[in-house]
Amino acid sequence: MFSFFKKNENSNNETVEQKQESSKSFWNFSFEGLKKTISNTTTNLIDNVVASVVEEEEFDDFILDDMEDLLIKADLGVGLASSITDKLRKQTKVKPSQIKQFLKEEFEAIIKTAGSSELNYDENTLNIYFITGVNGAGKTTLIAKLANNFRLSGKKVLLAAGDTFRAAAEEQLDIWAQRAQVDIVRKDGIDSAAVVYDAIKKAQAEKYNVLLIDTAGRLQNKRNLMEELNKVKSVIDKLAPNCLKESMLVLDANTGQNGLSQAKLFSEAVNLTSVALTKLDGSAKGGIIIAIAKEFQLPVKLIGVGEKLEDLKLFNPNDFLDALFEQK
Ligand SMILES: Nc1nc2c(ncn2[C@@H]2O[C@H](COP(=O)(O)OP(=O)(O)OP(=O)(O)O)[C@@H](O)[C@H]2O)c(=O)[nH]1
Ligand SMILES: [Mg+2]
Questions:
Q1: How many angstroms separate the alpha carbon of residue 215 from the centre of ligand 2?
Q2: Nearest CA to ligand 1 atom 14
Q3: Which superfamily, per CATH, for 127-272?
Q4: Beta strand pairing status for 210-213 and 183-185?
Q5: What are the distances in angstroms from CA 258 to CA 18, 100, 211, 253?
Q6: 164-206: per-residue pLDDT in tens?
Q7: Closest listed residue to residue 190, CA positions, set 164, 228, 216, 171
Q8: Which residues surround ligand 2, an ion (CB under 5 A)?
Q9: pLDDT per residue over 230-247, tens digit each?
C-alpha cells in the first residue's frame, strides 16, 4: 500500500515529519470536509429513509415497500435495496427506531467485504496505475491529481498519454503534466498500446516510481475500444509483470446506477482492482459506493471532490460511514 512515511529523495530542507504531515493533509479528508461533501448523499440515503420509518412501532409490508423505493432512489440498486428490506421483513428484533444502526451495520459489512481501500504501492518496483472509464468520467483529471500527490510525496512520476483516440487528449494531459510538474510520454498518432510500450520502457530505464496510464473514454458497449483496453493491459503484463498496482475504473458519482453496468463491463475487459469515484462534490449519489462494493466486490480507493489538483482524497470507509451516519 502507499506509505506516507518514506523519505523524499528530492526533499529540500523539510523534515520527513513535515513532509509526512503535508502529504497526509493533502490526501486525507478532514472529517468536516467529508461530511460536507457527502451531505446530499446523507440526506438521500439516510435521513429520508430514517424519517420514513422512525415513528412506526413495527415494520410491515407497507412501510418496507416505501423504504425499498427510497433506497432505490438513493442509488443503492434494486438488488441491494430489496435484500436489505427483505432482511427486515423476516425478523422481529430490529425495530424502526433502530433503523440507523441497522443500516450502518449492513453498509459496513458490505463495504468491508469489498477488500482494502488502501491504494496499492510497492517501494521496490515500478508502480503502474491503469486508469479506465467512460467518456468524461474524470480520468485525465484524476491522473493529474494522482501525479501531483505522488510527486509531492517524493516519487518520480511519469504519465503515458494513452488516449490516442479523442482529439487533443494528449495535449490536455501534457498541460496537466506541466501543472503537476511530472514527465510525460506522448506519441500522437500511434496506437495506445504502442504509447504504453514506450512509456514502460522509459519508466524502467530511468527508474521511475510511478507510471500513470491515461486511456480514451469509451462506452462500455463499444467492443473494439474495450478490446483495445485488453491489448494495453497485455502489454503491461508482458513488459512489466508484477508492476500493475491498480486497474482502476473512474466513475462519475452522478451516473448513479449506470455505474453498475460500467463496472461490470470494464471488469470483464481488464480485471479491475478498484474504483475512483469522481465529482462526489455536490452529488447525492454517493450510495453507489455501497452498491458497487456489493455487486462487484470492488473497493473505492479514491474520491474526486473538485476540478483542481488538490481535490483528490483517499477514501476511508470508517470515516465515510461515520460521516454518513453523523456519528463523530
Ligand atoms: N466537480 C468536479 N469535476 C470534476 C472532477 N473530476 C473531473 N471533473 C471535471 O470533469 C470533466 C471531465 O474530466 P476529464 O478528466 O477530462 O475526464 P475524462 O474521463 O478524461 O474524459 P475523456 O478523456 O473525454 O473520456 C472536466 O471538466 C473536469 O474538470 C471532480 O472530482 N469534481
Ligand atoms: Mg481524458
A1: 7
A2: 138
A3: P-loop containing nucleotide triphosphate hydrolases (3.40.50.300)
A4: unpaired
A5: 42, 27, 29, 10
A6: 988 899 999 999 999 999 999 999 888 999 999 999 999 999 9
A7: 164
A8: 139-140
A9: 999 999 999 999 999 999
Q: How far is the CA of 133 from the centre of ligand 2 (A)?
A: 9
Closest CA to 137 of 302, 320, 324, 321: 302
- The C-alpha atoms of residue 323 and residue 38 are separated, in whole angstroms, by 8
Kind plus residue range of the DSSP H or E element containing 247: strand 244-252
Cβ of 166 closer than 6 Å to ligand 1, yes or no, is yes
Q: Is the CB of 311 under 6 A from ligand 1?
A: yes
What 8-state DSSP symbol labels residue 234? Answer: H
Report how far ligand 2's centroid is from the alpha carbon of 56 (Å). Answer: 49
In testing the pocket of ligand 1, which one of 215, 280, 307 has its CB within 8 Å of the most ligand atoms? Answer: 307
Task: Quote the pLDDT of residue 327.
Answer: 56
Averaged pLDDT score across all residues of the chain: 89
Question: Helix 288-296 to helix 258-270 angle, to the nearest 10 degrees?
Answer: 40
Query: Which three-class secondary structure state does DSSP give residue 159?
Result: strand
Is the separation of the CB atoms in 107 and 290 below 8 Å? Answer: yes
Collapsing DSSP to helix, strand or coil, 317 comes out as helix
pTM, two decimals, is: 0.91
